[in-house]
Sequence to fold (366 residues):
Amino acid sequence: MSRKLTYDTYLFGAAMLIVVVGMVMIYSASAIITMQKVGSDNPYYFITRQLVWLIAGSAVMVTLMHVDAARLRDRRIIYGIVAAVLAALVIALFQTPINGTHRWIVVLHRFQLQPSEFAKPALVLFLASYLARKEERINELTSTLLPLVFVVAIFAGLILLEPDFGTASTLVLVAAGMIFAAGVSWMRVVTFTLMIIPAGLLLVLSAAYRRDRLFTFLNPEADPLGKGFQAMQSLIALGTGGLRGLGIGNGRQKLFFLPEPHTDFIFSIIGEELGFIGAFALVAIFAFLVWRGFRVTRFSQNRFDFYAALGFTLMIGIQALLNVSVALCLLPTKGLPLPLVSYGGSSLITSLIAVGILLNLSQQSG
Fold:
């Protein structure tokens, strides 16, 4: 008798719980600042738009949960997705800049899509397909590694041109994790590390705003009302929350003190309003979600599923870790949303794409 295929309900439950926390905190963090951000006196402006994206993302997630896994492995579909995302990244560079960057494509004059967010699942699928086929020759430089590095460099390079150093870094870290899991030799790892560290430092130092973020990170107290303002306000929010927090809706740092409280720094608002207990609980749920993702990876029945599950788990885990680290001032400030939590349609949809594919693959594992 064949085994009945079931989804990982624990993974699904953890993801949905994080989404619910995100919706509640987006409303709490954005209701009062709507007039300042978009010139509207409607306190439900941001939460309504996020709800629209949630419905769309949920539809995509459910579709991916039920699609035939063989279609996920179809190279024609994967290459089509990669080509479409690369084209979108190029188109975004020629769009009217928003906040001084070319990260978005405006859709229907109201909604904005961020192609760099969709680059993450597209690259994960490409790498999963490529590594599954080239696994036995992973250490061959010209036939395997250089083409792999070339594709990753194209994605990262286009995103850096927006500019978006944080997303490009996330992309590279996810790719590095997947390639490492393929069994690349330690000599290649050391060589790559010795090359990437100077290149990364050069990129950081080549732009004034990135240099400022690095030096501010090293000493945020030197300019608490200027370049160190975000970092200091984030720490104040987290410190003010104490053990139990001020209560949902009672936070003060969102009142025009902490920039972007509903997006990049929503974890700081969570720490302020839900306290250490709430913030720790959210981190614990993320850790549980990542563990369930790694469990899908461990019990995968074929190599594509292994790499895809690993990549999507790393995609969520690494970005969550970076966002929380920035809020805690453990890393320089960068514009990275907290997956499934922060306001932003593209980020929410791509995170739900990752969850949907993980749930699909969880049926095949065991």
The chain has one domain: 9-364. The mean pLDDT is 88. Residues 9-364 form one domain. The chain is about 70% helix and 0% strand.
